[in-house]
Amino acid sequence: MDDNIKIFKGNIIFTPTKDAFKCHNNAYIVVENGKVSGIYDNLEDKLSKEQIIDCSQMLIVPGFVDLHFHAPQFANRGLGLDKELLPWLETYTFPEEKKYEDIHYAEKIYKRLVHEIWKVGTTRIVFFSSIHSESTELLFDLFDKAKIGAYIGKVNMDRNAPDYILEDTEKSLRETENFILKYKDKSDLVKPIVTPRFVPSCTPELLEGLGELALKYNIPVQSHLSENTHEVAWVKELHPESLNYADVYSKYKLFGQTKTVMAHCVYTTDEEIELMAKNHVYAAHCPHSNYNLSSGIMPVRKFLNTNVSVGLATDVSGCHETSIAKVMVSAIQASKIKWLETNREDIALNTSEVFYLGTKGGGSFFGKVGSFEPGYDFDALIIDDSNLGNIENLTLEERLQRFIYIGDDRNIVDRYVKGTKIKEPEVF
Amino acid sequence: MDDNIKIFKGNIIFTPTKDAFKCHNNAYIVVENGKVSGIYDNLEDKLSKEQIIDCSQMLIVPGFVDLHFHAPQFANRGLGLDKELLPWLETYTFPEEKKYEDIHYAEKIYKRLVHEIWKVGTTRIVFFSSIHSESTELLFDLFDKAKIGAYIGKVNMDRNAPDYILEDTEKSLRETENFILKYKDKSDLVKPIVTPRFVPSCTPELLEGLGELALKYNIPVQSHLSENTHEVAWVKELHPESLNYADVYSKYKLFGQTKTVMAHCVYTTDEEIELMAKNHVYAAHCPHSNYNLSSGIMPVRKFLNTNVSVGLATDVSGCHETSIAKVMVSAIQASKIKWLETNREDIALNTSEVFYLGTKGGGSFFGKVGSFEPGYDFDALIIDDSNLGNIENLTLEERLQRFIYIGDDRNIVDRYVKGTKIKEPEVF
């Protein structure tokens, strides 16, 4: 027996491309040193001596990837959703984020957060923390300990917000650099990410300093782009010198100069979409949040047609849902309305497309993640769908579709990241 | 102690009107013979001797009402949702409905269905069954036994569907009359409803006969109205003599001549909406289903402004969700997109409005149901929201909003219909 080899037997389904599921009924997936080495209908003799983890009746699928999540808004899920983006920030969001100056409050909520992310089967996630370094470091340590993959960004903001949540520009940059230095090589699974909140919250000096830090240490970047019409108008007012919203980030080397992901992109222009494709900037599609905050519907088909890399995201707490499966449903629904809105030109997303976006699409931001092709990290969920109805006469694709639509965390039996089974995190 | 009196202590919240929640922190609701007699901050002496059911930390809210659900589509939830209405009917829905000619299959699935409806806290529901009398009677008996309130309709259809699911017109009418005679006075909680599938499936002879039966026995009516543009065009083709879709039903006394509910109403014209208001025809708003089948968004604000009675509905299996709480979220989200689509004219629904629609709005179809005003049936859910986050510093309205958005069946501790606690139905 080779301890570096794990073999899983079950019904394997994943999306190497967005256009179709790849299905292996009752097959074996061989994992060596945390990476997929192959999928087989029958095992070679030498492998048949290895230990086999039997999930025969179950589905084995890639773990979910969430490209945009505000950790300090976790306790606000489901609250204040009768408001639009800007008033919602002022009334609910900023006051909640302020609480993370208190490390004890942060510990209480962030432990629940780790448990929730584990529970819903998200195996890789990109987090906004708050402006507070100590709480951000705690968030990092908790995910590192849980062995769930994450990018974690200390938020930067030095204008246009209540005083109690604004930073001094220099201090903001100094603390960000300290965070990067302390954590960039600390963990194999959790990494820092440069995180200007969004253009209206960051002075040109801050944006410039953050772009320099990202380049100096080759750290990825995340921010928000064109979520809401008022926000887009505001950016135009603040930056009349720029061609458009994306151009502001680009000018400060925060738009693909290192690996970058932008959340929302509801009102992104064709020019900006082309710049995203050219600069390999990812779009994090957050349909539930865009509904909840009355923002609108991202024209996701246009991004895919232009070869922009797209992943899915919850955007808690603009989104109340923590499950990427539920975001997949919302993404399909939103694209169907967009199809009607565009006079049936922008074809709606189908199930394989959203599954791709929520696994390999977003997963590629982390490397070889989100698929079961050889060489990919074995990030996986073991799904028991026996309580969702009969499985006889259903294809694997139908069983997976049904799980996405009507399953929940109770159907997820086990979670793996890089071949390691993720234990249930302690909450208290 | 008076056995006809039950007193519940807890945090009581409901919507006597759609415009605001009525909240009673830590109060007593007194139920006599299954009906609410009053809500009190302190109990009078004579009542303090009665047994008190203590739900002090919990929320006490009216049970959910689902105005439109296809019982024989239950096993198809989450399947085939990459299709539009008409191809989805042909490929997934009709073949599944055919199976209900087999009473053993019906028994297996309908027992699961009763359990699911109990689980998600729906206390009153309006069902389409299939064309099969025996399965329809079984569905009736199961809900009667479970003590959950329901209208149950044997489906009628004699044209434009595969042969295996079509009826002979006379037989369809005869079996419907038999069902009405056998069941109209059988149960206090479960009642028959006349159920032409929709205009394209019913010949004029069938519609005429059904209208006569409804009037003869004073039985309510349900059907579908203007779900999809292709369907609306088809009805126009089939009935060039009629003013519009609603006019076809109206001509055959199936549009408010007895109590009537119409599902969807996505493309209902202003004239039709006014006729609905005038004839007191209910609209069952099914936003999840309308998304899933790419139908569109019902202009629900227009219906409310015109004083049409509106309730919420899942429309399983066009909708994958069985929970009316999730339909409430979907209704808010859909109305926010409609707000953008109408250039911010149709104001989006807020939380009290959707809660009203999903309780008292739909509940009024059943009588004094869906509120805790004196004289109302005590249909209630006891909600433990302690696992959803802190409850300190939250109003009851915020706690209820959070439950609607992020809670699930695990938060529902008990369900009551007409003052009787509903036991968990046996599945096998």
Automatic annotation (TrEMBL), chains A, B:
Record-level GO cellular component terms: cytosol
Keywords of the record: Hydrolase, Metal-binding, Zinc
Cofactor section: Zn(2+)
Comment on bound cofactor: Binds 1 zinc ion per subunit.
EC number(s) on file: 3.5.4.3
GO MF entry, a single one: zinc ion binding
Keyword Zinc: yes
Class of this enzyme: hydrolase
Every Amidohydrolase-related domain range: 60-420
Gene Ontology biological process: guanine catabolic process
Pathway info: Purine metabolism; guanine degradation; xanthine from guanine: step 1/1
Transmembrane segments: none
UniProt catalytic activity: guanine + H2O + H(+) = xanthine + NH4(+)
Family: Belongs to the metallo-dependent hydrolases superfamily. ATZ/TRZ family.
PANTHER family: GUANINE DEAMINASE
Function (record text): Catalyzes the hydrolytic deamination of guanine, producing xanthine and ammonia.
Name of the protein this chain belongs to: Guanine deaminase
